[in-house]
Amino acid sequence: MCWEREPGEMFLHDKAENNSKLMLNVEAGKVYYILQRMHMAYGWARTTLEELSEQDGLKYLKECTGPKVTSAQKD
Fold first, then answer.
1. Where does the pLDDT of residue 55 fall: very low under 50, low under 70, confident under 90, or very high at 90 and above?
2. Model's pTM, two decimal places?
């Protein structure tokens, strides 16, 4: 995901079996890279949010692939 916002304090949160929160002090002109990790075990899912360095964020982005689009098959 990518979005722009005004400088200032910002809270990100996600919800699974737990609530994960991350506070950022957003600065003008700066890019932030956030990694969301999913932890699955025995029928429950937990998540964590982690701010990455620019170097690590760019590394993860290079490993990403776009969504796969498939056409619907007719019976």
1. very high
2. 0.73
